[in-house]
Each structure stands twice: as C-alpha cells, then as structure tokens.
Amino acid sequence: MDTSALFKLSYGLYVVGVKTETGLGGCIVDAVGQVAAGDSPLASLACMKKNYTNECIKKTSECTLSVLSTDVDPFVIGNFGFQSGRDVEKWVNAPHTIKDGLPFLNNACAYLRLRVVNALEFPTHTLFICEVADAENGENPAKPLIYGDYQATMKAAVGEAFQKFKEAGKPSQDCAAANAVGGAKWRCPLCGYVYDGDIPFERLPDTWKCPLCGVGKESFKSV
Ligand code: FE
Q1: What is the set of domains in the chain, with CATH numbers?
Q2: Residue 220 C-alpha to ligand 1 middle, in angstroms?
Q3: Distance 155 CA to ligand 1 centre (A)
Q4: What is the pLDDT of residues 150-164, one digit of tens each?
C-alpha cells in the first residue's frame, strides 16, 4: 500500500481552537469534511487522541476551525503542529481574535465554529461530528491550502520556520509584528515591574505572573 495516495484527497489544513482549563489550546488538523448541507450543516473533524486539543474538545464540546490559506506563514503550522498545548501556550505566538471565548487565527480564508453532537473512537483518532454553529469568510482572499500541496511544497519551510523559533525563542517576524499591534504598557502593583514583551499583555496566558515578584497577571494595571 502507498499511503501517499491519500495525500491526493483534497482536504485542507486547519487550525483548531479550544478552551482549556487555564486558557486556550489548539492544533493543526487536516481531516475535516462536510457531512450535511442545508439549514443544519454538519462537519466532521478527526483529531488525534494523544493531542491535548482532543481532550479539550471532549470536555467543552466546542471548537473553532480557521481555514489556512496558501500564503500562510509556515511558522503558524509549526507552532500549532509541532508542539503540545500541554507544554506551551500556542496562541500567544499567533495573531488571533477571541470571539465568545474561543480563538480564531487572523488572516485565514474562512472560519467555522463547531459544536460536537457525536463522537466515534478509533485506535488513533476521535471522529467528531459537529453542528456548524457559525461560518464566515475570512479577510484573506488567497485560496485555501490543500493538504497535498502542503506535503509537496511547504513541509520543508514549516520545519525550518519551527527550528528558527526553537533557536530564537520567539515567533517568526510576520507573526511577531502582527502580535505587537496594540501594546498598552502594564505595571505590577507590588514591585513596579513594567511588562515590555513582544506579545501584547492581553494575550499572555492567565497563568502568567510578574517575573520579579510573582504577582498574578490579573493584578497588573495598565499605564
Ligand atoms: Fe511584581
């Protein structure tokens, strides 16, 4: 059997967004399909069982899908695909918008909000069947990225971009620039430390603490 034949199934690449117990999580998936159309559209989403995102979808019964475009920053795919939400807060590295508590990747082709109505367990994956609770076209006019094209033309760039991120400890230039939009300063009420990081203060995880005295993020005051 030549499993590369499966790359010719023309599904895309998507960033899934979920709520976790302490913040936001997500991962890259490819096996997404439409199950029913009409007034009550349904979608299927297969997610690896070992992924933290899978656990979060089961707990919350909801997630978002951001449809990646052909011009997506390769770092975004590495960020969501090559590390675990158990270890890192992936969304702080990627420009995003939070709607009703769930994250969407900025500059995607399209956005879906999904509510799980059924789930089937397989040895490696859970197949979630979901109601499409909301759907919108994105601001990005580029075509959706097809999984086979990713395999053929983008995979090496994604590996390189992620390697650079691991070495530099910060996101790609494009993501860092998009993340930096906004940027009021925030001060620790106890020790006076002023946060001056690349990631806007609002996007730091709720578990973030003052690096000098350990005061929680929620106590910081905007200056
Ligand atoms: Fe402090």
Answers
A1: 3-167 (2.30.110.10), 175-223 (2.20.28.10)
A2: 9
A3: 42
A4: 999 999 999 999 999
